[in-house]
Amino acid sequence: MPRRRRRRLSLGAQYTLFAAAVVVVALLADWPTLRENFAKQEVAEQLFPDIITVGLRNTAVYTAVGFGLGLAGGLVVALMRLSTAAPYRWLATAYIEVFRGLPLLLIFIFVAVGVPLAFPGTEIPGGAVGQAGLALGLAATAYIAETIRAGIEAVPRGQVEAARSLGMSQGRAMWTIILPQAFRIVIPPLTNQVVLLCKDSSLVLFLGITLEQRELTKFGRDLAGQKGNTTPIIVAGICYLIITIPLSLLARRLEARQRRGQR
């Protein structure tokens, strides 16, 4: 039998098995019970507009602040990681290894409990937004630093040599020649980092936030407890997808465009 025909038969068998599995699941599922517990229309309607104006808005704010702090910190740590001064490299490496190795939950607990204990009478500016942004930013800094470092190292060395031959200092060449090219390279992974921070913002609930400071997960969980129904959690999940799916599609398009530009 020709190889192409065998491949078609194999794919046909796989599609058939997948369709059969879907049919079996659809026939065995208790759809009325699922609809009552996970997709109750009257419960879902009661969530609006608060789930958008409170939950979704706060999630976007926490994500934006965390990413902003992470991007600024990541740039500094990446430059320290590439510094010719050994103490800077050691400090940057230690930071990256520690904060990439710690669970994000522990970082949130440290920000909520450790900072007030270590610095009595000190409050993080911005309240819950500042605390959430700091916790997310501390973690994001470690990952973004490695992303930016990889982008800088991906810039052809000839670019640096050409800049230096024109009389540019190392610092000026870095800011005007290398970093702009590096950021074009790392835009897709940075977009993916935003998606991760959006999901990680669900840990804000450990900061002891008020009703008006709730993000989507906390909002959905509170309403699910009040209504005795899990529909609010499903709606909260859909709201997360409203943010993450467009960002994921954008990241894929940027990666595809980058690959085309390299050919």
From TrEMBL:
Q: What start and end residues bound the annotated signal peptide?
A: none
Keyword annotations: Amino-acid transport, Cell membrane, Membrane, Transmembrane, Transmembrane helix, Transport
Q: Which residues cross the membrane?
A: 59-80, 101-119, 233-251
Q: Where is the ABC transmembrane type-1 domain?
A: 56-251
> Which Gene3D superfamilies does the UniProt entry name for this protein?
MetI-like (1.10.3720.10)
Q: Membrane topology per the record?
A: Multi-pass membrane protein
Molecular function (GO) terms for this protein are: transmembrane transporter activity
GO BP annotations, alphabetical order: amino acid transport
The subcellular localization recorded is:
Cell membrane
One term under GO cellular component: ATP-binding cassette (ABC) transporter complex
The family annotation for this protein states: Belongs to the binding-protein-dependent transport system permease family.
Name the record gives this protein = ABC transporter permease subunit
What does UniProt list as this organism's lineage?
Bacteria, Bacillati, Actinomycetota, Actinomycetes, Streptosporangiales
